[in-house]
Amino acid sequence: MKFKLISAFLLGVALSIGAFADQITLKENHPETYTVVKGDTLWDISAHFLNTPWLWPRLWQANSQVANPHLIYPGDVLTLIWVDGEPKLARKQLKKLSPTPRLVEKSEAIPAISLAAISAFLSKDHIIDPALLADAPRLLGDAIATPRFFEGDVFYGQGKYDKNKLYGVYRLGERYRDPVTAEFLGTELTFIGNSQVSKNPNVTATSKITPHDFLKSAREARQGDLILPIPEYESMPAFFLPQPVPASTQGQILAALNNARAIGKWDVVVINKGKREKIQIGSMFSILQSGPGVLVNKNNIVYHDDADKFAQLSDSDLVIPAERVGELMVFKVYEKVSIALVMRSTNVMGAHYKIQGLEF
């Protein structure tokens, strides 16, 4: 299993690097050197040098100075050099002089993007067809009919469970539909917490009911919540490499997974494109703000803030072109939808902003 994942990752690296455009542009006031600090990501470092930070692999591609950019550590000094007419980053490890030799343990290598921003959604929250969960076991409650449960509580689950496995408590959330076709795309499956078969000697199981210890909770559990095995793949590490998407692939942001109405940088969103549109982990999209419709009369100009709706009302209207207000990167893909991280935003955005594949 691990070998297949590693092989797939290496293949993805080769394909994505080969798809990059021939030219990348440096920022006007870019530094000549940069010292890596704790909390940096490869995306962050690229943003110091490039106008297009999603092209960060180009800074290390075919670069003998940095054989593996995932092994860059805080304290490393990166120097901008030129190789065959393209900018590259060379690494020089920071050395501290000391009268006596000593071993210094390296901190963790820096990631491609901020895993902290997506950790809550990376392996726990899902989008699913609720019909698949029609017969899934439910949280029943306890001996005194407590309606809500918190970390450290004991509750009873419907059915039998493996005492050696960890289970997830989930709740069905928002239902997603395509804003244009009204097609049902899936329902959010929100992670509540972890549980396992209880070791409390004061509670007992029957042939149909099993007590659980609520080990760790992200939020309170309730009667009726689902109790499901946690898939094995959720404990595997994730790698994120920017992947180009044809500009002909267009869609919309459906919602923010943190229930925010105002969406900005580092927010996690759901988009109405998935595996059937060949979206993959790392797929990049531009975020577009639709321009208003403009109706020109003899005496005045009338604006309408919904360009799509305005276009349906009149054949003589003009629509101001959509402006690019940010980018997002997909990090989780389902059949009809994907979950993505907003990597840049020039202003506050909302749900139903349009997206367009980012070619590079």
Structure commentary:
The strands form 5 sheets. Strands 4, 5, 7, 8, 9, 10 and 12 form a 7-stranded antiparallel beta sheet that branches. This protein has 3 domains: 19-94 and 106-112, Roll (Membrane-bound Lytic Murein Transglycosylase D, Chain A), CATH 3.10.350; 118-235, no CATH class; 250-357, FlgT, C-terminal domain (Thrombin, subunit H), CATH 2.40.10. By secondary structure, the protein is mostly beta strands. It has 4 helices and 21 strands. The two termini are 32 Å apart. It has helices at 2-19, 42-49, 115-122, 307-313, and strands at residues 33-35, 77-83, 86-92, 126-128, 139-141, 148-149, 154-158, 167-177, 184-197, 209-217, 221-222, 226-229, 250-256, 268-271, 284-289, 293-296, 301-304, 318-319, 323-333, 338-345, 354-357. The radius of gyration is 25 Å and the shape is flat. 11% of the residues lie in helices and 33% in strands. Mean pLDDT is 81; it is low at 1-22 and 96-105. A hairpin with a 6-residue loop joins strand 8 and strand 9 (184-197).
